[in-house]
């Protein structure tokens, strides 16, 4: 006999019972194991895997310890369940913390990378509240625009937030309910003018606010909006009224260079600095896309309509946009392409870390530009021409006068003695236009030491070369894939520069966008010198100094530099002194790479300080003190280096590769043997 759990006597257990009970238990365990495996598979298929090494709790926690507005839940809602089993997370970062973040995935099924913008998910009632409040705010904002002197974004945001707060209080959406109140549902129902369905399936009568709240609100908050709901509503309303609506998060992504939507029912695409072209999860509805493009044009001060369906515009943040409305000139309908404006320019160190140029090439460009040699950067679309021109402009000494000419402001220089000129389209047909010719004519009277022209597109190139041939050092960009194409297009119609005049140019850098190890990269394919005009053969003599070799992804010096020889002649330097000048600049650049000094303000300060006092900077490098002294070096009277620390912190600057780090270390080792001792001892030139 045996007793049960409460001490009662039970029946005598028969020997035959034991194997039967064991078999049942085994079957139950097996069934439970299968159910557990099925549940695990279900969970894995319906949730995204977290990237190894990512502390997700920390990612979704604010500095004050509270949760971010956008959370893991919003990420799960943003990605379709059918996609989740096939996605591998590559990168995750905030673009508008705590409201919006980006995740870059690789799809194992489709073997492509995808860009997901994740924003707070709204319930049905929250979406309808947002629509109602947006309608009310639209009137308020229009009134504020009409009555104010202008709209600069900051004022607009303040108006939106103040009016939103007023609206929420006016309709008792954030107050404690009084006795007998119907709670939030009743308040919202009356506020939205909802009525019972009369059975005919028709819409609400015109004249009401026309939005019917859903009863889903009862499941979460039957009384008032909680703080999180208010935060989500405030985010979307300021995003739409102050920012760039659906693409606002993408616009804030410093790693994105271009944003485009190719037509109705098309997703938005981005060009990402690290991942190349990516499809996004952002889509516009047909009417919404039309309205968005019209809004972009209006914000840019341009008009777009069916009569004038295409415009080139400059957005308030400086980005360049090409806008097309409707199907008149585009089969797939309304589309846009936005070329992002970089708040903080890239530097020569960024170009070296990207391996767009080598340290040797960058040192040569430095010495050449510092000594008034003209540079033309050529390449195809998205090859990084303007980025290189902007970075190379740091090599212009602060003691010189600079004038820049652009149709859209993209160049940024640290020099105080800088006139930044921008073309202006006519306000009416045929009148008041200020084009490149007008600005070039004015430049002659401004007497610059260096002239920067954003891009040569047509006949203004002839005037530019006339200025170059009269002694004005010029730096510009041009759309061409080779030096031969540059020569052909400049010396034939419509630009039609004479071949003798073309030799006023010193250097041509040909850039290309290519693929290395599956990554989209930019490389300087050749660095070429324009030597002389051969009258007998009627041709311009050119010579490559550096070439990029695709098979090794390395730069090789292939010829002597006549530009360096001219500099040595003009400065009265021996060959040894020339090599030392080149090496000293290479050492400064290598120090910045090796020590991770890549911020715009720090690089600009180091470069300008060297050109003002080389022995002092080399002494700081030799003693390992340059990095700590950079804040003091920014205080040159002729230089204005004012960069917002928060903006700099979000700049998408590259890390040097192991090969670049080794190259920088080798340069510093050579300097240790041949250069540093004399500067540690306090010697100078």
Automatic annotation (TrEMBL):
Biased amino acid composition, Acidic residues: 195-207
Pfam families, sorted: PilB3_C, PilB3_N, T2SSE
InterPro entries, A to Z: P-loop_NTPase (IPR027417), PilB3-like_C (IPR056571), PilB3-like_N (IPR056570), T2SS/T4SS_dom (IPR001482), T4SS_GSP_E_ATPase (IPR050921)
Domain PilB3-like N-terminal: 84-120
All copies of domain PilB3-like C-terminal, residue ranges: 551-621
Disordered: annotated segments: 1-24, 192-214
Sample GO molecular function, one term: ATP hydrolysis activity
Bacterial type II secretion system protein E domain residues: 302-511
Family: Belongs to the GSP E family.
Protein name: Type II secretion system protein E
Organism (species): Natronococcus amylolyticus DSM 10524
